[in-house]
Amino acid sequence: MLNIIWMGFFLAAFCTALFKLVFLGDQQVFAQIMAAMFALSKSAFEISLGLTGVLALWLGIMRIGEKSGFIHLLTQGLTPLFSRLMPDVPKGHPALGAIVMNISANALGLDNAATPLGIKAMQELQSLNPDPETASNAQILFLVINTSGVTLFPVTIFTYRAQLGAANPTDVFIPILIATYMGTMVGLLAVAYVQKINLLDKVILAYLGGFTLIVGGILAYFSSLPQQQMLEQSAIISNLMLFSLVIIFILGAVDKGVNAYDAFIEGAKEGFQTAITIIPYLVAMLVAIGVFRASGALELLADLARLAVHYFMLDDRFVDALPTALMKPFSGSGARAMMIDTMKTLGADSFAGRLSAIVQGSSETTFYVLAILRLGRHQTYPPCRRMRDNSRLCRHSCVHFGRLLVFRVIEI
User: Which of 56, 45, 46, 95 is nearest to 75 (CA)?
Assistant: First the structure.
């Protein structure tokens, strides 16, 4: 599937550009495409290079938390829920800890922190996968929850709206929270139906009911705050909670007599190696998206959608936000650019401006996540030190270790 999508970007860009050259006399279109190819191939490397430090940092911190025993303690509270949602994952397995931390970071809107945590979770889940060529039920459920995860504090959306002159930058907060929470629930219900998960289990109902009450309470609290106070408190809470986890990890290492520095270095080395392996994937996808955008093909799709809406005599105001929605499944950064362009052109407080912000803040690169599962399936890697006795599982584990990172790094 990814092969078809990737080639489709280039072929659609070529056909669109050729039409514009022959029939519209646009002599600069191919120059723009080539400029986009060179610029985005360079950007892909720079993104990977810039992510190296982030990966090294958070995988190092995760290793401290793992060795200090805090991850195990943290997961005990959610083990009853995930043991029922993911019956194939043994209780106390490291995958549960990484899953919990990843979901928590996503809820706080901390994409950079969520990246290595998601990678760790996918790696651990792959080590349990009986068929490395096919995603397991646990992996599918994790990806669905991850890609539709609730973002409680979409501070970046507020910032963009404030910079572009919105009268009330936070007025999209409640729509974003409702949309992302409902997306998570729909995704969970769909997976539960396919995997025959019993959502009527008392434990699952208790957790989901509790989460619903928490989300409702947060909605009630933040909706009552002035916009500036909402921005300040959401940012403070997010950063305070994240750094508090770092301190708790370190204190736990001291209590357990663990050498925190050595544990950090051990985890950081994994982050460095992972950042190097994703460069080819980033170059391939970012360049394809870039030429598709530079050729004008994306704009053409929006125009065709407007014609279809007019044919059915519907309100076409949402079409102006459609480029953001179309780009979002493939590239978070591309969708972000579309959102900013919409707000600059039509106004941050326009219907399309608000709608594009809601799409950007309440959804993830879902289609890209699904496509990325096929990357590297036939790649070969040397056996890892941690899994000497099963080189085949380990090889595929390393492949999957980089997969989740690829779609997350697009968000940076």
Answer: 95
Buried b (16+ CB within 10 A) or exposed e, 215-246: beebbeebeeeebeebbeebeeebeeebeebe
64 near 267, Cβ under 8 Å?
yes
Q: Where are the alpha helices (DSSP H) in 296-390?
A: 297-311, 322-327, 332-346, 351-362, 366-372
Tokens found for residue 331: 């590239």
Quick check: pTM over 0.70? no
DSSP letter assigned to residue 110: -
* Residue whose token pair is 């109902």: 205
Q: Where are the domains of the chain?
A: 2-409
Per-residue model confidence as pLDDT tens digits over 167-184: 878 778 778 878 888 888
Beta carbons of 86 and 138 less than 8 angstroms apart:
yes
Helix (H) or strand (E) holding 288, with range, is: helix 279-294
| Dihedral sign of CA atoms 102, 108, 113, 115 in order | positive
